[in-house]
Amino acid sequence: MEPHCRRKLFLIALPLLVSLLLSVSARIPCEFPAIFNFGDSNSDTGGLSAAFGQAGPPHGESYFHGPAGRYCDGRLVIDFIAERLGLPYLSAFLDALGSNFTHGANFATAGSTIRPQNTTLHQSGLSPISLNVQFYEFNDFHRRSQIIRKKGGVFGGLMPKAEDFAKALYTFDIGQNDLTAGYFLNMTTDQVKAYVPDLLDQFKTYIKHIHDQGGRSFWIHNTGPVGCLPYVMDRLLVTAAQVDEAGCAAPFNEVAKYFNWKLKEAVYQLRKELPKAALTYVDVYSIKYDLIRHAKKYGFEHPLRACCGHGGKYNYNARLGCGSKIMVKGKEVMIGKSCKDPSVMINWDGGHYTQAANKWIFDKIVDGSYSDPHIPLKLACHRH
Ligand SMILES: *[C@@H]1O[C@H](CO)[C@@H](O)[C@H](O)[C@H]1NC(C)=O
Ligand SMILES: *[C@@H]1O[C@H](CO)[C@@H](O)[C@H](O)[C@H]1NC(C)=O
Ligand SMILES: *[C@@H]1O[C@H](CO)[C@@H](O)[C@H](O)[C@H]1NC(C)=O
User: Fold this and answer.
1) Does 99 contact ligand 1 (Cβ within 6 A)?
2) Would you say the CB of residue 177 lies under 6 angstroms from ligand 2?
3) CATH class belonging to 31-300+355-373
4) Is the pLDDT of residue 11 over 70?
5) Which family does the record assign (predicted)?
6) Domain residue spans in the chain?
7) Of 41, 112, 338, 371, which one is the catalytic site residue?
8) Does residue 88 line the site of ligand 1, with CB under 6 A?
9) How many Å from the N-terminal Cα to the C-terminal Cα in the chain?
10) Rounded Cα–Cα distance for residues 45 and 23 (Å)
């Protein structure tokens, strides 16, 4: 072949080769050396427990054989994510005891919201560790972990490497409590919907702040069907006309879907504004709703009943929650007991999912079929 011909062929082949290489590299599994998680009880691995007292027995009974800072009988979706990425379970940033942050940190606390609340935990059950505070903590962690790491020794060995902040997976599961917060203040559905854009503006702000600090891979869960949770259905009056085919309270799920629609829009905007970031939107709502609606088909029972609790239509009583005790003839008796078989139940304590449900949910999200774009967890560092 003539040299110039060869060059021509090369010039034709080059774009092909580049696009081929790009599509191949997009299939190379990401090496996430760490996870930094932000959220509420759906992904709290010990934050609220560390600051405000342990979620006591029977929490943790199915896997950790004792309380483990989780509002669950065992592992959460974030635990299954860590397992699948070959990383240890995340220590809570707030947990001063035995924490190891070599492979990430968890800033989530149960009851957290995106927007800072004007109530105390005692008044409303909402955590003061809202998303802005979680970001302040992350910011502090990012800076100081490196000072401590440089000093070496025991404490230095518990910190992540500087370069891991750019390579890490940043996970989010937050928003549910912002929606219930309005309802619990007796707001109407329209009033709750009216502040959803503000929630997402604040959410976007913190994603951008993390991006400014080098974060590139974002894995964002949408919010679940909050109208299917016993603690919501028990507290807010639900009329028969509002109950849907799954037995859930339709208006609250409508608001969740509205939030999710706006969240997806926010993720699309972020993709435009942050061309170097890979943002994956994960539709956990559809997975959870499908699980609850077709519980029997999937081998679960009583989708709207809490496993751990006491009394009422949903085995849920706000005053006698999971793990609560009463005095009977001078003796302490646990009345908020666990059910016989948590592995066939979906709801753990009225507000949270069981380990069995979390595993089921994880198995659906891991391959990317419920994600936008449709990329599996292990490829979530690639921008599409
Ligand atoms: C912290 O975690 C890392 C990674 O899992 C491990 O190698 C190290 O031994 C742990 N440090 C302590 C003190 O347990
Ligand atoms: C808390 O109060 C401030 C000041 O009045 C207000 O701007 C903010 O929206 C309030 N937050 C919530 C969640 O209602
Ligand atoms: C909401 O309404 C209920 C029932 O009318 C009332 O008991 C409660 O105090 C109200 N809550 C707030 C925060 O206004």
Assistant:
1) no
2) no
3) alpha beta
4) no
5) Belongs to the 'GDSL' lipolytic enzyme family.
6) 31-300+355-373
7) 41
8) yes
9) 38
10) 36
